[in-house]
Specification:
Inorganic Pyrophosphatase; single chain; 5-stranded mixed sheet; alpha+beta; Beta Polymerase, domain 2; elongated; 8 helices; 5-stranded mixed beta barrel
Length: about 290
């Protein structure tokens, strides 16, 4: 089954048909848009085989310029992809498919999310899908939440309340998914608090025993660039290429941290915990490693 009456919420067990339809839709879009597409992937709950989902296919399309897509709006419409300019989505364009849009019925079948290449919107779509697929406990928690919200939706606001009810879970999972996606990768870190840096507040001062910085252009859970502890480099540095060896998940805060080290060095959880304790001792943390 593909499609659901607009404004309603109903969940179904995963169906192989969804994967086939997503692949067919990707092929159709590639035929229409050609080299305008820089990447295109099946995302959303129908891309997570272990959980129930609404039978609506979500596709994320990465492009370098939204203007390239808008210039092809008429062509997309001719093939059944309708632009939704009033969707009120930040950082993306939305196209939709289904009989509701062509006037022949009331079904929504597909949502096409057009985002900029390597943007946070792109990262979020892919990371959320991948994290649920490799973390069964989180996927099950998400499914249970959706089932509970779907049971309430007919009498408590329908689709809008259903979507709002998922927001906090999605935000927290995106945080975890983002930092987890960097495990084992090599990144360039900008250091804004080098070894010996003193951070003063009204009540105390904190001297940094390690280099501390961020991954440029990548936003963490607090809306600021994603923070990184650089271990194993005892001198102050201001830019460094290191390997991400761990993630620090703060259970009682809105942000998580990455932990990096030189390419030829590694540390275990106990060593990492001890070296970041100067800042993390104020939080309930969990350290994840590759």
């Amino acid at each position: 089954m593909i499609g659901l009456k607009r404004g309603t919420v109903k969940l179904y067990e995963h169906q192989k048909e969804w994967e086939t339809e997503a692949l067919n839709t990707i092929c159709r879009l590639q035929g229409i848009l050609g080299t305008v597409i820089k990447d295109i992937q099946h995302v959303g709950s129908t891309s997570v085989p272990s959980i129930k989902a609404k039978p609506i296919i979500d596709i994320a399309v990465a492009v370098d310029d939204f203007g390239d897509i808008l210039s092809l709006e008429d062509k997309l419409k001719a093939y059944g992809f309708y632009y939704r300019p009033n969707a009120d989505l930040n950082g993306q364009l939305l196209f939709a498919c289904g009989s509701f849009y062509d006037g022949s019925g009331d079904l929504q079948t597909h949502f096409i999310h057009v985002v900029l290449t390597d943007s946070m919107e792109w990262k979020n779509y892919v990371n959320f899908r991948d994290y649920l697929n490799r973390t069964p406990s989180t996927a099950r928690e998400y499914e249970n939440l959706k089932i509970a919200l779907a049971e309430k939706s007919p009498v408590e606001g329908g689709r809008v309340k259903y979507t709002e009810g998922k927001h906090a879970f999605i935000a927290e999972t995106l945080r975890k998914a983002l930092v987890s996606s960097y495990l084992g990768k090599t990144v360039v870190i900008k250091i804004d608090r080098p070894v010996g840096y003193v951070h003063k507040t009204d009540n105390q001062s904190l001297t940094y025993p390690v280099n501390y910085g961020y991954v440029p252009g990548v936003l963490g859970g607090d809306g600021e660039e994603l923070d990184v502890y650089l271990l194993g480099v005892d001198r102050p540095v201001y830019e460094y290429e290191g390997r991400i060896i761990a993630a620090v998940h703060r259970k009682d805060d809105i942000e998580d941290k990455l932990v990096a080290a030189p390419l030829d060095m590694s540390f275990d959880k106990e060593e990492i915990s001890a070296m970041v304790d100067f800042a993390e001792k104020y939080y309930d943390i969990e350290i994840e490693m590759p």
